[in-house]
Give the backbone structure.
Amino acid sequence: MIELIDLHKSFGKNHVLRGANLKVEKGESMVVIGGSGSGKSVLIKHIIGTLKPDSGSVLVDGTDIAKLTENELYETRKRFGMLFQMSALFDSMRVWENVAFALMRHGKLKEKDAKDIAIEKLKMVGLVGVEDLMPSELSGGMKKRVGLARAIAHAPEILLYDEPTTGLDPIMADAINDLIVEMRQKLTVTSVAITHDMHSAYKIADRIAMLYEGKIIQIGTPDEIKNTDNATVKQFITGSAVGPIQIEGVTA
């Protein structure tokens, strides 16, 4: 369903993606792991079309979205839902208005119908009776759930997750992982998540891809990644300071 082919992207002298290749099958849950600054966010922004590659292709169902017009890209993005790293809720809007934002803006629904859909999606993520609260009244975990409800409000085919467990305690992070798995099963969507949280990666992934120095260096099932012979992947997944990955500002 999604294929990245020889993707290159630079920002000035910083060559972030250096020929990244990745194929995500329809209905699959793919997790891309890698260290801070490895280019994971740049990769996912190419998938949704907010960044265009310097060279290479981004295919969604065989269509190179990097070559679409603005109007064509606008229509393609309606197939996507995204959970942002810090939830990215609008502080001035009530919870239900956040969830229904795209429905009202693009679907031109009446307010009552949009609110009904928002309440339904909030129930799907385990939130009841919060629709009239403001984001400032929510905990971090609740904000993540509202963000997920917004991501699924328009019934997308593809869900993207940007560091879904960042900023959460281990128990709440695991609850979000369970919710991601549940949403995939209920909605039968294709999912791509980026994370450096290996507990999360193992739990939500069908396959895991490691991004390092601008390229995907290994792809495998969680068990295959756990038992890898690749020294770079092994260092990252075990969290070791010793190995081929150099820590900035630290000398051996």
